[in-house]
Amino acid sequence: MKGRIDSLRKNLRREGLDGYVVSNRTNMLYLTGFQDGSRLLISADGEHILYVYNVNYEAAEDLVKGCRIERVDYGDDLEQMLACRIEALGLKSLGFDVMDAQTYIKMKERLKGTELKPAREAMWALRKIKGEDELNLMRKAAEITSMGMKKALEIVEEGATQREIAAEIDYEMRRLGSEGTAFETIVASGPHSAYPHGGYVDRKLKRGDLIVIDIGARYGGYCSDMTRTITLGEASPKKIEIYETVKKAQKDALKVMRGGMEAREVDNEARKTIVKRGYGERFVHGLGHGVGLEVHEPPALNPKSRETLEPGNVVTVEPGIYITGFGGVRIEDTVLVLREGVEVLTKAPYQLVLK
Ligand SMILES: [Mn+2]
What we know:
Layout: H1 2-14, E1 19-22, H2 25-32, E2 39-43, E3 48-53, H3 54-63, E4 68-72, H4 78-89, E5 93-96, H5 101-110, E6 115-118, H6 121-127, H7 132-155, H8 162-175, E7 186-189, E8 210-215, E9 218-219, E10 222-223, E11 226-231, H9 237-256, H10 263-276, E12 288-290, E13 297-301, E14 314-317, E15 320-323, E16 327-330, E17 333-337, E18 342-344
Parallel strand pairs: 1-5, 3-4, 5-6
Antiparallel strand pairs: 1-2, 2-3, 7-8, 8-11, 9-10, 12-13, 14-17, 15-16, 17-18
Helix pairs in contact: 1-6, 7-8, 9-10
């Protein structure tokens, strides 16, 4: 953890910032191993202080190493405390990850001699590149997710409801060590499968339905993300055509991906197959997103992305085709970008017709 704050300091100095305020819980977790602080103040050349309310103070003292902890009592003016410290440290150019408008206005009024600068990228530059310790946790999260998918493919049956299947998947992943889930499990069938995030309603599975199962375990704080689409019984030629198109799109993208490649090029590699087969308009989202402590992080893989993939990025590759009233197909895996190629972390068969 200490190494991470030092790396952040390097980024701050490079950007001409002499301090940084962290308010985002996940950034706090990344830097200190503790997410229940209220603010983390970091001076570019030395001190860092974690501000923690009463309720979490003992836990912080127990869990946080190598960081000064300042107790905040109810009724204390946290912004005032921060501002005093910022002045005492002589921080003139202060970056921050996120700040709510009220805090920003208050800090700006209070700190006349300090410039406040939005600087999220200083954090993302670190979080986008996963270290070996993080990758081990992500591999484990992916393994649990793959086991969850295995379970899903075993239990999917006609007459079961989407929610019943989702509950079984969640239970299986929990039992295998998942900390809740990385996001709300999606089991979307029939017409609901045409909505990338499901129908938000329950439904009984029917023969011939397209069924999109999008799941993710969380382990050691790290997320995983995986989707398979299946159908029960015979698949119509159109369903097969859509499925094969999505599968080819994913395969094409995985084949070319490597460190140094532009994210939008990877998106294009998958998209061109879908466009060529006439479904370009039906691929309504980007090809993928970064995954880490959050399930949606930079780098984004989409036609407008300005990111370049780097070894150590963990991203999803998830082409989809969605036809309103008919159904949708999405196939998604979480992969680690390497100097050459990728390591696919999530594993399950690619098979449309299940039983
Ligand atoms: Mn995803």
